Amino acid sequence: MSVLQAANLTLSYGKKPIFSNLDLQIPEGKISVFIGSNGCGKSTLLRSLARLLKPQEGSILLDGNEIAKLSGKEVARRLAILPQGPIAPEGLTVHQLVKQGRYPYQSFLQQWSQEDERWVKKALEVTHMDELANRSVDSLSGGQRQRAWIAMTLAQNTPTILLDEPTTFLDMTHQIEILDLLYDLNEKENRTIVMVLHDINLACRYAHHIVAVKDGGIYALGKPENIVNEQFIRDVFDMECQVATDPIFGTPLCIPYGKGRRLI
Amino acid sequence: MSNWLTLRGRRHSFQFDRRLLIVVSLLIAANVIAMIVCVGLGSTFISPLAVIRSLIGIGDSSNSMIIFSLRMPRVVIAVMVGAALAVSGALLQGIVRNPLSSPDVIGITGGASLGTIIFILYFSHLSIRYMPISSIAGAFAAAFLVYLFAYRRGITPLRLVLIGIGMATALTAFSYMLILTASFTPTAVAVKAFTFMTGSIYGVSWERDVFTLWPWMVVLLPIALIYARHLNVQELGDEVATSVGSSVHIKRTVLLLISVALAGAAVAIGGAINFIGLMAPHIARKLVGPAYGGVIPVSALIGSLVLLLSDLIARIAFIPLDIPAGVFTAAIGAPFFIYLLYRHRKS
Fold it and tell me: Which end of chain A is more exposed for a tag (fewer CB within 10 A), N or C?
């Protein structure tokens, strides 16, 4: 069990305030997706939830404890974050990368316990990276590489996983592959997933809970089917569109107006 | 996975790459052979067999005298200085995440040299035991200055390297200026200081050099190895390191202290021997991959091997002249540096 929330959070880059007095609770055991236009601060918010950014005021609470007062390893056993576009050193193998996820459980004398071995093996299996374990990370395709990094965060074995734009720079096939993987992790293992996504339609399809960020605050939050409509897209993304129903999943589907070849 | 070897007890557990164990064994063997050859070659030739006989205490007495009092200390110093410079470079490359950095490139060796030159010129009445302290102080002062000048809301590796190269040049120039302008410098001291600036382990002794250097090695090298884990997660970026629970800034400071102290101690005895700190970690990564549990010991063994061989060539190629070993490490190292610059020109 782990409950993540922000209380009275104020964040700024230099002197420019990004968020002030923000309260937010991440629903446990669900997939939450942060959306918003470029530069709205959704990544900043995600990173501060994972204590990668220090808030000017207010606090992040993990299971009711202030995250800044917990030890780094203690937090790392309950919450993992995969930052955007991480880079592995040249020649590092997938196995070596995934092993690093066990850092919060290790000490100098305990560098490869049976627990470590079990979780690394499981993380490699779940992400279908077991066949590629001895390949070097830099020799993999974009989708495989992202799966290797996700395997590393899985080896950390935390109830909550945060991901900053896990599908950016991937082609459509691999975007779906990564999101399906995260969906399964939530469905089968009841992990709380929090991520930033750019694609509103994929967000509507995979998220139980959407947090729309705008102008240094939260514009709306809730189930996609309850909050995403034309007015919502206009306000959050400053774009005109029609919101239809996804013919396969029944989730909201945003079709932008704008220009294009018209056949009907 | 058959290429991994797991070692578990009640209180400990480790996983070793089999390739690493093989590479380490081969390098240890190569070092031992090089040491025996180095001890044997010189103006008096002693066969490897005779060397081994002397080492186990059944050799002839004049051979044993040459081996133990003249050549052995030099070989031991080559091993320690080479290993210290190589590990210092390996740590530094990991800390700043830049394959082009090493203690000599970013000015740390320059600072240590200046510290040593000041000691040779002005404090020579003190015990040689204090010399590493002066060198290490110089190394830290240089590291601090480079850090200070390169700091602008954080440190970018490129700025650190550029400032460092400038600092290295300035410190070397300043050291030479001190040697040349200290009007009271007797010629012998000036020559000693000049040789020092190229990097030489000529005429080292047990009492003066080996006993001064080994305590530093015995303390610093194991700490470097213990900290390998922390360096491994730092190599994935500060954010990932924080995510897995590493206290990035504290660990990085400790690693930097170890790296600077190793370079300082090595320079105090071996002089400004260049390029070993740059080359050895690259060769190590090629052999055993980028994980620091492997890079640190393998760099150390390669560093010692390179310096053993450089010193051997320096000693015997131009008999009776004894050339500073630093000339030969630079002869291999400088082209290597250019090759690295070329390879990394895009990043």
Answer: C
Query: Peptide bond preceding B320: is omega within 30 degrees of 0, i.e. cis?
Result: yes
Residue-by-residue DSSP string for B95-135 = HTT-TT--TTTTTHHHHHHHHHHHHHHH-TTS-GGGHHHHH
Confidence of residue A12 (pLDDT cuts 50, 70, 90): confident
Mutation site, A43, A51, A96, interface B, largest B CB count within 10 A: A96
Residue B21 domain flag: no
Selected for mutation to probe chain B from A100, A110, A120, A135 (highest B CB count within 10 Å) is: A100
CA separation for the pair A170, B328 (Å, rounded): 49
Comparing CA positions, the residue from B144, B133, B116 lying closest to residue B216 is B133
**Closest by CA position to B285, among listed A136, A118, A174, A68:** A136
Q: Is B320 on the interface with A (CB under 8 A)?
A: no
Query: B202 vs A228, which has greater pLDDT?
Result: A228
Radius of gyration from C-alpha coordinates of chain B? 20
Q: How confident is the model at residue A75 (pLDDT cuts 50, 70, 90)?
A: very high
Rounded to a whole number of angstroms, the distance from the CA of A215 to the nearest CA of chain B is: 26
Mutate which: B96, B98, B240, vs A, most A CBs within 10 A: B240
pLDDT value at position B184?
67
Q: Does B93 touch chain A (CB under 8 A)?
A: no
Residue B324 domain-assigned (yes or no): yes
* Residue B63 confidence (pLDDT) above 60: yes
Q: Do B246 and A134 touch (CB under 8 A)?
A: no
Whole-number Cα distances in Å, B41 to B57, B305, B315, B326: 19, 16, 9, 19
Lowest-pLDDT choice from A109-123, A134-148, B138-152, B172-186: B172-186
Number of domains in chain B: 1
Contacting residues of A for B98, CB less than 8 Å apart: none
Q: Which domain holds residue B147?
A: 27-343
For residue A98, what pLDDT band results from cuts at 50, 70 and 90? Answer: very high
Q: Which of A74, A134, A156 sits opposite B244 (nearest CB)?
A: A156
Q: Is B2 on the interface with A (CB under 8 A)?
A: no
Q: Is A80 in Cβ contact with B244 (below 8 Å)?
A: yes
Q: Which of A50, A71, A111 sits opposite B14 (nearest CB)?
A: A111
Residue B237 has pLDDT above 80, yes or no: yes
Cβ of A77 within 8 Å of Cβ of B237? The answer is no
Look at residues B32, B2, B34, B27 and name the one whose alpha carbon lies nearest to residue B16: B2
DSSP assignment, residue A88?
A: P
CATH number of A2-256: 3.40.50.300
What CATH number has the domain bearing residue B55? 1.10.3470.10
CA distances from B265 to B116, B241, B328 (A): 10, 30, 21
Instruction: Please name the residues in contact with B328: beta carbons below 8 A apart, sequence gap of 6 or more.
Output: B310, B311, B313, B314
pLDDT digits (tens, 9 = 90+) for B42-56: 878 899 999 999 888
What rounded mean pLDDT belongs to chain B?
88
- In this predicted structure, what is the pLDDT of residue B346? 62
Number of alpha carbons in the 13 Å side-chain half-sphere of residue A33: 24
Residue B100: inside a domain, yes or no?
yes
**Res B1: pLDDT:** 46
Smallest CA–CA distance, residue A224 to chain B, in Å, is 29
**Minimum mean pLDDT among A172-181, B114-123, B284-293: which range?**
B114-123
